[in-house]
């Protein structure tokens, strides 16, 4: 498969708007992608939503089965709230 980009959305100020290059193989699942991204961001995989287009992706699905190819961008929305007093951040 090759290189994919992960763009982190707004809920995590530390990484908001940052793009990460993630290398995965042809058999990689969404869960594998999350694990690889965790090594760069320290965001736990169970606190990530991965979105492609308008669809939230399930961990067990292979990226290849979704026709996600080298150079594509997946969007990451952390589900944690950094500042509980400001839950909309």
Automatic annotation (TrEMBL):
PROSITE patterns registered for this protein in UniProt: UBIQUITIN_2
Superkingdom per UniProt: Eukaryota
Limits of the Ubiquitin-like domain: 17-76
Family annotation (SUPFAM superfamilies): Ubiquitin-like (SSF54236)
Designated name of the protein: Ubiquitin-like domain-containing protein
